[in-house]
Amino acid sequence: METLLTTVIALAPRLVDGAMTTVAITLLTAPFAALFALIAGLARLSHVRTIAVAAVVYVELFRGTSLLVQLFFMFYVLPLIGIELSPWTTGVATLALNFGAYGSEIVRGALLAVPRGQIEAALALHMPPNRVLRRVLLPQALPAMLPPFGNQLIELVKATSLLSLITISDLTFVGNALAQTTGRVTTVYILLLAVYFGIAYTLTLAMRALERRYGVARTMAAAR
Amino acid sequence: MMFQLDYAAELLPILLKASLITIEATLGGMAVALVLGLVLALLRRSRHAVIHTPASALVEFVRSTPLLIQIFFIYYVLPLYGVRIPTLACGIIALGLHYATYTAEVYRAGIEAVPHGQWEAGRALSLPIYRIWRHIILPQALPPVVPALGNYLIAMFKETPLLAVIGVHELLGTALREASQTYRYYEPLTLVGLIFLAFSLVTALVLRRVEVRLAGRS
């Protein structure tokens, strides 16, 4: 008679494969999303109207529609108009663009929270604008961005599960396949939830460590 | 491949009708999230570890796992134990449960923002705990968090397409069904995107109105 333990052991290798894919998607997407967030967040504050408007359009387009709809649009419609991308590229690009749009609000908020006097002081010292950004604005804004970006990272892990619907064999895809082939529906879905929780929790701990090292509290202490 | 306007025009009424299911799922899910979230927030404030520990664990667990798996879980696993729920109701429960863990945090912030003196005053008048909550704390805690709750309403609205995976014929499910019949994905998916955009922009405007009104009142 098959016990729960033997079932779990039998399922483990494929679930581990799936989990690796999920982690890979997350870690591959996160830097792109952060980059898009930074670019769009800065662009929205630009004095050049065209740049600011372009950023607003990008952000509202991706925040105003559903991630799953975006994924299906990229997956089904782009090939029809001559843009052929692999499911992986489609998935990672859509996730990065979507999370970049949400992240840009975090970037914008953190940049606006830097006291205006800081910019004025830097400009009074004749710093060129890009150095004001690099040496004055970002070092003060980045620590404030860490906690909300940590939350976004957990949201990203959860969102990667949608890529299973565009044929990528991530944890969700593997889990659904196992549930169908083994018939052990309850065990498989509970294991899936547990593994996702494990991944999310590990990332939460990592982000907390990062916050302790570079977060607001730490930078404030160092400035004193 | 060109965007065919006449096919789009043919689809639009079908999709607008399907958007009623989307709205139904959103409002149903939000109702569950508003009530369950408040219950979870109150349970988490309990003095007894047997009550607040499981409530906190549930919130953390549900928040950290994908809604998609939770939908599958409710749809495939519960019937095995004799719990038979209609498909749309499965979706509403999943959405509601998932977002309850978010609204619970919102409520908590609102409750913690009520000055401590309000509690003390209530106790000094030896009001029963139920009346302190009902007549003193919640009336002050809830209005300021309405905008935050509204944001989750919009967020939930944008997650309703996930219900297509269990066969709910909301916007996306209907669009995919139509597309699979004609092999044209361009028009249905573009229209779904545009409908979502339109709804989101309108709700965002309405919420801003509500926010202004609430701010004006206090």
From TrEMBL, chain A:
It is a multi-pass membrane protein. Signal peptide: none annotated. SUPFAM superfamilies: MetI-like (SSF161098). Its main location: membrane. Belongs to the binding-protein-dependent transport system permease family. HisMQ subfamily. The chain crosses the membrane at residues 28-45, 52-78, 188-210. Residues 19-207 form the ABC transmembrane type-1 domain. This is Ectoine/hydroxyectoine ABC transporter permease subunit EhuC.
UniProtKB/TrEMBL annotation, chain B:
The keyword Transport applies. One of its GO terms (molecular function) is transmembrane transporter activity. GO terms for biological process: amino acid transport. InterPro entries: AA_ABC_transptr_permease_3TM, ArtM/GltK/GlnP/TcyL/YhdX-like, Ectoine_EhuD, MetI-like, MetI-like_sf. Keywords: Amino-acid transport, Cell membrane, Membrane, Transmembrane, Transmembrane helix, Transport. It comes from the Bacteria. The chain crosses the membrane at residues 20-43, 189-207. Residues 19-207 form the ABC transmembrane type-1 domain. It is found in: Cell inner membrane; Cell membrane. GO terms for cellular component: ATP-binding cassette (ABC) transporter complex. It is a multi-pass membrane protein. It holds the Pfam family BPD_transp_1. The keyword Translocase does not apply. Belongs to the binding-protein-dependent transport system permease family. HisMQ subfamily. This is Ectoine/hydroxyectoine ABC transporter permease subunit EhuD.
